[in-house]
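Journal club prep, notes for RB
We'll compare a predicted complex against what the paper describes. Inputs for the S-adenosylmethionine case:
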Amino acid sequence: MTYSPAQQDYGQDPLSVRDTDKYKEEYVHSFVEKWDELIDWEGRAQAEGDFFIRTLKEHGAEKVLDVATGTGFHSVQLLKAGFEVTSADGSPEMLARAFNNARKRGHILRTIHADWRWLNRDVHDLYDAVICLGNSFTHLHDEKDRRKALAEYYATLRHDGILILDQRNYDAILDKQIEPTHNYYYCGEDVSASPEYVDDSLARFRYRFSDGSTYHLNMFPLRKNYTQRLMQEVGFQRVTTYGDFKETYREHEPDFFIHVAEKRYIPEDPQ
Ligand SMILES: C[S@@+](CC[C@H](N)C(=O)[O-])C[C@H]1O[C@@H](n2cnc3c(N)ncnc32)[C@H](O)[C@@H]1O
């Protein structure tokens, strides 16, 4: 296993760093520790309500693969709700943290260290649902990687499985240059998350903590329609997109979009 370096390093020209593999170095130990501060679990659980549990149940899902486990928030919420959960992530640092977080709450995580681009090399099972949450898919900087990751998620789903994938509302950021109200989703106190720089292929976010420490993430700004199209192109039959957990919304208002992509074949309506 490779462990992340002690400090973030974007070199002389941080805006030129647009590399899918960079995520392994971005989540340095101190940032991972602070991540739990950033995503205050209780506040986040309140903001999300039962959206994910309800959606999974509506689709009859019991066995769930969390491909972007991070520090374990959703894996633990779903274990608590009685789902059978496997927790994957490409960062061993994150998985170690998630394992400890779960243990503190009385759960043992079943973890798999796996990169999404070759997920099925390390995951040898089929699931009712794959979840990729917390604006994680945005870490893939190349279209080739995005297509491959979606194809790998698709392959690990049963014939009628669903993928739940969320993303920031980058359309709002790209089109109107407004700063999303991060408080809705990431509810940590004394933490600010804001886009420091944005263009068509880079959203560089700054995370500033109450102790003065600052970290960055360089991400790809996914437009909502683009993500939906990619999902359909890899074979998902229907994609339903919610805005901040609601079915109806004004395009630029939500902070986050949540896509629910169904694999089950849906025949055309007979005319
Ligand atoms: C923003 S964190 C989100 C964590 C968690 N889902 C949450 O909502 O709190 C993104 C996670 O995606 C993982 N990740 C990013 N790119 C990845 C890749 N190509 N393969 C596997 N994991 C990846 C990172 O290691 C990190 O743990």
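Talking point for the session: The longest strand covers residues 157-168.
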